[in-house]
Specification:
By secondary structure, the chain is an alpha+beta fold. It contains eight helices and twelve strands. The chain has two domains: 129 residues, Jelly Rolls; 79 residues, Winged helix-like DNA-binding domain superfamily/Winged helix DNA-binding domain (Arc Repressor Mutant, subunit A, Orthogonal Bundle), CATH 1.10.10.10.
Amino acid sequence: MPLYDIRDGNSDRRGPTPTSTAHRGANRFRSASRRYQRGDLIFQKDDPGQTLFIVASGSVRIYVPSSQGADLTLAVLGPGNFFGDLSLLDGRPRSASASALTDTSVVALERSDFVALVRSRPEAAMSVLATVASRLRETDEMASDLAFLDVGGRLAKKLLDLAATNGVRRRDGVLLDMSLTQEELANMIGVTRESVNRNLSLFRRIGLIGKEGRRFILRDPSGLRQRCE
């Protein structure tokens, strides 16, 4: 859901993208930089929403909190991704919460400037619409994964998704350049931490993944891909 860069894990494209155009437009309006430490709340579900946020550095978790304490993570956003747009478009409260997954810097664009941006730059409006459509597709895919993939398949797919946006290719595999706890991974795929622990142990034993501190290394992305097909 980027506002100034979109790139999948197998792509080496350069140059402008629909979202890069929108971000250049945003630079012409009032914006403010904000910094958050890991775990800081950016906004909470049901808060009024008058601000769009663009991730400049770090990563942000979008999630639905549960009264039972087990959150459901909807997305992990890296540099170039934007969030908070739904409330600006429909005027309703926030539909989810957002927090900093790592130390994070964002650019905040107020609603009046966001509206002026999309009115003055049709390409920015198309960028936002394309992102909303992409999110709807991702929601359909998430529902399909919940119905048809077991825990191991969902975990393998999530690791590959994270590698596409936060991966660093190395000789020994792809390093996920972000620290993740088992609880955070469990929240991303809607299962318990114990289920994630069992499957991570299996993945390590058969050589699919490794660990470097709190960061994962995907040693066999092809094997992970087969696991979630």
